[in-house]
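Entry for pyridoxal-5'-phosphate complex. Fields follow.
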Amino acid sequence: MKSRPVQRFSRARIQIITMDIEQFRMRGKEMVEYICEFMSNIHNRRVTPDVGPGYLRPLLPSEAPQEPESWEDIMRDVESKIMPGVSEKNNHSSFPKKKTIDRYLQITHWQHPRFHAYFPAGNSFPSILGDMLSDAIGCIGFSWAASPACTELETIVCDWFGKAIGLPTDFLYFNPGSKGGGVIQGSASECILVCMLAARAQAIARLKESPAHAHLDETALLGKLMAYCSRESHSCVEKDAMICFVKLRILEPDDKSVLRGETLRQAIEADAAEGYIPFFVSTTLGTTACCSFDNLREIGPVCKKYSGVWLHVDAAYAGNSFICPELKYLMAGIEHADSFNTNTNKFLLTNFDCSCLWVRDRFKLTGALVVDPLYLQHTHADTAIDYRHWSIPLSRRFRSLKLWFVMRSYGISGLQAYIRNHVQLAKRFEALVRKDARFELCNEVVLGLVCFRAKGTDKLNQKLLSTINDSGKLHMVPARVNQRFTIRFALAAPNATASDVG
Ligand SMILES: *Cc1c(COP(=O)(O)O)cnc(C)c1O
């Protein structure tokens, strides 16, 4: 048997191969240049990929390189194996390509002007720069002491944004006597999860106090808890209920895809009669399929009546639009909510991840999530926020920086103009659908989402959508609205214009 070769490390060699600050200065400028070219020429790329699963494996070595590779080689592979969707004649990239692999078209280009799938993936230059700085600061802001600015800016920016969209003042942190406050999470799924956990902890604690249940342990009580949402709620609510190990009753919305108070009331009463304990209702403002709005004015009083039912409002997409005074009516009934979330990384020009959550009573949140080992404690714990008690992970990025950059660079007026542009363009697309006798409209167009279908069978529409997506020129995804297959046209490009809509 051969003996293993002895590894020798030379200090000089390691210094040569590491990117030093001067190289970073150069590569950083090149990268900004690359990003600018990518952004200016993205319309020349295909919007959808045309590769199948597993395309990348044969193109890359099966093991990480033993020896350092040159930056040029890495970037060449980015351009030839990761980014494509560009034809040779339109290739403006500054990086030379290897001859072999330019036929593959590998990325779905979310920032493409003809990307109309899902909801927008927020993006803007101030936000990118904010994230760059956050990466460089590289702090892990789990407690106030771990990085005071990281914590304090987050609280302040959440208050700014909460005020701008018109949340009840109870949700703000800097408000005399307030128990509320905002926090930035990684996703709407996490926002809903932490609220469900808080509601669960509160419900269990309350049950343990009641003579009828005091003898039961937590696991027995858990089996009695019932959460509610609408069929139009995002699938993450179902996942969150799975994680929380609670039952979830999925309710039927009305024919406009709106969850109504009476439906909830009947379900709660029927469940209570069977011994279940209703504890959490997740509503949606701006549903993912068709951007419908649950009726909070009706649902709020139902939750109040069954005291202790936590009312959550998931406005991942639409919540951002409430920054426009003329759209605030969409949040009517918000005064009944215990918690509210919106993703600025969807509809407010901020890059993923930046999901804002506000709660009316932060002590209910921390009551469910505080674990406090000695090594994380600090002397200001009584007077400062420790955001680790507001979320699942311990470590957290300096996310508020990019939102702060965005809010200051655009100003409220710029953000309003951005939202209004998307709304107007959606209305324009809606008008085109209405004018064309071959198509029908399938949702009420309120923000930047139009659901439509060709008059005819679901099959015809499926075929239409796959033809659109296979062309590589446009990208849309389907949704089931009122039991029918429809095509979703979402405004996504930050600077979309009338010519992008047709
Ligand atoms: C997009 C979306 C979500 C999921 O958001 P994540 O941040 O990806 O978890 C939840 N709810 C609604 C209404 C959404 O549109």
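NOTE: The pocket of pyridoxal-5'-phosphate is lined by residues 119, 187-189, 234, 236, 284, 287-288, 314, 316-317, 343, 355 (CB under 6 Å).
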